[in-house]
Structure to design on (609 residues):
């Protein structure tokens, strides 16, 4: 089977890539488009470090064939980082030291972003549930949960600000 | 606080924090280079085997195949990571020669235009192996007739001519003879994979000035640089190692595994070469924490004083020693624990088996000693009929005490730490333990 052109919207900008069948979204983002905030911890759906948002929902980019996002909105950590300064959620991770080595951080932030968009005032249990698919080997998770709680309290999600 | 104190006592933002929360931190495989080649390894499917033949003919026909590297391409193929600090002999094969000693041992490196092509070529290499009996258990490895793992001796690392690291302090047997109780225990721990979220990886890049820049996530950049220079027989100034950003290590990235082959491949192809472990390689091939077996025998007086301790420990080093000889030395220095025991004898063996090599992980050598010692302390408490707090306070070492490996105790804080811990859990200590300190004992005191 030959390659085909896939068009999707990445961080609000339309992109067109040539992909071989079954190339993952992770490989396209990292190695064809240079979006290296999409991490590569296991390439088997086990660690969550490659999490991106597709149409606002967290998705493991390592398991998703790139052709499946044709015509859809894809959001990576690069896309939510303002030109100046930080997104309030990023600031909350910084303030709470919600990371040590930093490798799981992009996935953690993307999952949390989706959570807060849907549920601006999550309970601790809801936060734990949302983060359940993302592995962190350094922090023991507590600072990450604290970061998400801090972001929720600061009204990091647009939905929260509207209230 | 003195005005000069602008760091101590304050929270200082991490210099890499912004990079981590924006995803701009560059981890090793986040870098890309024009013409990047991919290196993948043909690994032994058997735990122990003689290599009778390697057939590369089909692999060479895979589209995108660039070249293969075998042991014959490696200038100094047999090395020992700790050779840098005088540990002998050189024993680990960068690429296997006539024998493989663990499942997953590298035999051939394949360099290809893409990762897919490299994997395809790896799958098409034909190995002719003759399976040999294997040993996976430390005490079995020491029995007469056990398969011998090393190419240079028996199944134990040698410490100055001895098969174990030894500590001798006082007279253990005499103390056992006069002890009121003998308390014995056997403690086993299993291998643990450090499982960093970022797998072990490097990219070696030929530079216009004739040097090679090696981007690596090693935890020990000079171990990697120096060993690579030795293995490739090039002066260190030909190599520029760029490290420091490590996506989790926990000891799992202190061995020198990917850099020598990636750099050799870059030399042979004049192109940048990436060698990154898959998750399964990280879990199944990279060094783990060792499995340990620890035999502990203590002579204890009716008042709770431990007057003698005898320890025989075995660490499963796997097929090669890597950092494990050092772990045993640390273990031997700490197997008496933070306690003042006047008679101590320790034999600590670094044992070779056909398991994947083990190496560093968070306090290796000491963590397992602490596990054994602290369970042993509770057993002693039970036997003499005192509570565990008492056993710990009665035996706690103090400043000026001599440890079994002939180091004077300095800056001891065990007693103060236990007093604070008791406070935190709301345990009321008897007055005599509340009054204790780690200060040097009075002259002639015990």
């Amino acid at each position: 089977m030959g390659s085909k052109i896939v068009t999707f919207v990445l961080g609000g900008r339309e992109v067109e890539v040539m992909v071989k069948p079954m190339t993952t979204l992770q490989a396209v983002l990292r190695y064809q488009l240079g979006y290296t905030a999409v991490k590569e911890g296991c390439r088997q759906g086990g660690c969550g470090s490659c999490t991106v948002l597709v149409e606002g929902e967290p998705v493991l980019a390592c398991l998703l064939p790139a052709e499946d996002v044709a015509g859809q909105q894809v959001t990576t950590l690069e896309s939510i980082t303002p030109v100046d300064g930080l997104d309030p959620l990023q600031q909350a991770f910084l303030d709470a030291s919600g990371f040590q080595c930093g490798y799981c951080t992009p996935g953690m932030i993307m999952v949390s972003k989706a959570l807060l968009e849907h549920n601006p005032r999550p309970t601790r249990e809801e936060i734990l549930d949302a983060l359940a698919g993302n592995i962190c080997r350094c922090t023991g998770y507590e600072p990450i949960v604290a970061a998400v709680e801090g972001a929720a309290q600061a009204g990091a999600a647009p939905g929260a600000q509207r209230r | 606080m003195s005005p000069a104190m602008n760091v101590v006592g304050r929270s200082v933002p991490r210099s890499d924090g912004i990079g981590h929360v924006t995803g701009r931190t560059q981890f090793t495989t986040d870098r890309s280079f024009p013409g990047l080649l991919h290196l993948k390894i043909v690994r032994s499917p058997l735990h122990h085997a003689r290599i009778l033949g390697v057939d590369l003919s089909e692999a060479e026909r895979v589209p995108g195949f660039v070249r293969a590297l075998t042991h014959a391409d490696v200038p100094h193929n047999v090395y020992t990571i700790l050779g840098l600090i005088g540990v002998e002999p050189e024993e680990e094969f960068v690429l296997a020669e006539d024998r493989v000693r663990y499942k997953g041992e590298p035999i051939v490196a394949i360099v290809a235009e893409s990762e897919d092509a490299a994997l395809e070529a790896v799958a098409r290499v034909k190995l002719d192996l003759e399976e040999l009996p294997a040993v996976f258990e430390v005490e079995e490895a020491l029995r007469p007739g056990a398969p011998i793992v090393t190419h240079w001796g028996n199944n134990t690392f040698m410490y100055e001519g001895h098969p174990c690291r030894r500590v001798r302090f006082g007279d253990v047997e005499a103390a056992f003879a006069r002890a009121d109780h003998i308390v014995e225990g056997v403690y086993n721990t299993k291998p643990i994979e450090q499982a960093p979220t970022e797998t072990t990886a490097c990219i070696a890049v030929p530079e216009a000035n004739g040097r090679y820049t090696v981007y690596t996530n090693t935890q020990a950049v000079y171990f990697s640089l120096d060993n690579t220079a030795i293995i490739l027989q090039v002066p260190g100034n030909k190599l520029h190692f760029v490290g420091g950003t490590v996506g989790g290590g926990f000891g799992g990235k202190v061995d020198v595994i990917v850099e020598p082959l990636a750099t050799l491949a870059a030399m042979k192809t004049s192109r940048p070469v990436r060698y990154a472990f898959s998750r399964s390689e990280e879990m199944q091939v990279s060094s783990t924490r060792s499995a340990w077996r620890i035999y502990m025998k203590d002579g204890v007086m009716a008042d709770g004083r431990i007057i003698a301790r005898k320890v025989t420990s075995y660490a499963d080093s796997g097929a090669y020693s890597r950092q494990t000889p050092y772990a045993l030395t640390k273990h031997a220095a700490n197997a008496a624990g933070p306690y003042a025991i006047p008679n101590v004898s320790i034999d600590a063996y670094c044992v070779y088996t056909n398991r994947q090599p083990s190496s560093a992980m968070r306090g290796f050598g000491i963590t397992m000693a602490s596990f054994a010692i602290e369970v042993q302390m509770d057993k002693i408490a039970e036997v003499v009929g005192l509570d565990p707090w008492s056993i710990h306070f009665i035996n706690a070492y103090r400043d000026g005490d001599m440890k079994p490996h002939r180091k004077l105790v300095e800056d001891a804080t065990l007693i103060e730490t236990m007093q604070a811990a008791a406070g935190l859990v709301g345990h009321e200590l008897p007055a005599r333990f509340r009054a204790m300190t780690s200060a040097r004992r009075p002259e002639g005191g015990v």
About this structure: Chain B touches chain A through 30 residues (CB under 8 Å). The two ends of chain B are 39 Å apart (CA to CA). The mean pLDDT of chain B is 96. Residues 1 and 10 of chain B are 11 Å apart (CA to CA).
